From TrEMBL:
Top-level taxon of origin: Bacteria
Listed transmembrane segments: 12-33, 65-85, 92-113, 125-143, 155-174, 186-207
Species name: Mariniflexile soesokkakense
This protein's name: DUF998 domain-containing protein
Keywords: Membrane, Transmembrane, Transmembrane helix
Lineage of origin: Bacteria, Pseudomonadati, Bacteroidota, Flavobacteriia, Flavobacteriales
Length: 216
C-alpha cells in the first residue's frame, strides 16, 4: 500500500467517522424528543429564540463554554501531533488534558451538576459529591503530570484552580442569586480564562520544543 492510498484511506475513515457521529447525535435527539414529549424546535432551535429571550442572555456562560471548547481543541490537536512524532509523554499529557477539559465543558454546557443529576428519580448526585470527584481527579492529574506542569507556566493553572475553587465554594455556601451569583460566575469565568491560557501556552511551547528537537 503506497502513501497516497494510505492517505485516502485515512481521510475516508475521518469523514465516515464524522458523519456517523453526526447521524448518531440526530438519532439521539429524535429519540429524546419522542420519549419525553419535548418539541423538536426546543431541542434543535436556539434557546434565546425558543424562550423569546434577549440574544445576550447567558453571554458570560456562553463565552466560557467557547473557551472550554477552544482549550480542549488545542489540547487534542497538539497532543495528537506530539504522540504521532513519538513525544509520547507530552502527547499523553495534552490528550488527558483535553479529556479533562471536555468533561468540564460537557458538565458546564449541559448543566449536569446544576440540574441533570437532580432529575433522576432513584439516584441523585449532589453538588458536594460532584465537586469531590473533581477534586480527586484534579489531584490525580497534578500528581501524574506534575513534572510537565512545573516546567511550564504553572502559575496560570494555580490561579485557575484557585478561582474555580472559590466559585464552587460560593455555589455551595450562598444562594445562587443577585450579587452572589455574579461573583460566583465571575470567579468561574476568570478561572476558565486562566485554564485556557495555561494549556494554550503550554501546548505551543511543548510543540515548538519538540519541533526544534526533530529538526535538529
Amino acid at each position: 500500500m503506497n502513501y497516497n492510498t494510505l492517505k485516502i484511506n485515512k481521510l475516508t475513515f475521518y469523514f465516515t467517522s464524522v458523519y456517523i457521529i453526526g447521524a448518531i447525535l440526530l438519532v439521539i435527539i429524535f429519540y429524546v424528543g419522542k420519549k419525553f414529549n419535548i418539541p423538536f424546535e426546543n431541542l434543535t432551535g436556539d434557546p434565546a429564540l425558543t424562550f423569546k429571550a434577549h440574544p445576550f442572555t447567558g453571554i458570560l456562560s456562553n463565552v466560557g463554554i467557547l473557551l472550554w471548547c477552544f482549550t480542549a481543541s488545542v489540547c487534542f490537536f497538539s497532543g495528537t501531533i506530539l504522540f504521532n512524532i513519538n513525544d509520547k509523554n507530552n502527547g499523553i499529557f495534552l490528550i488527558c488534558s483535553g479529556i479533562f477539559t471536555s468533561v468540564l465543558l460537557i458538565d458546564d454546557f449541559f448543566m449536569f451538576h446544576d440540574y441533570i443529576f437532580y432529575s433522576f428519580k432513584n439516584f441523585t448526585i449532589t453538588q458536594p459529591f460532584t465537586y469531590a470527584i473533581y477534586l480527586i481527579l484534579s489531584t490525580w492529574y497534578i500528581i501524574k503530570f506534575h513534572r510537565i506542569i512545573l516546567n511550564n507556566t504553572y502559575l496560570f493553572l494555580v490561579m485557575s484552580l484557585g478561582f474555580l475553587g472559590l466559585s464552587a465554594s460560593i455555589d455551595l455556601i450562598f444562594e445562587s442569586k443577585g450579587l452572589e451569583y455574579f461573583i460566583e460566575d465571575g470567579f468561574k469565568f476568570i478561572g476558565i480564562i486562566n485554564w485556557m491560557l495555561f494549556f494554550s501556552i503550554t501546548a505551543y511551547q511543548i510543540v515548538l520544543k519538540s519541533k526544534t528537537k526533530h529538526v535538529l
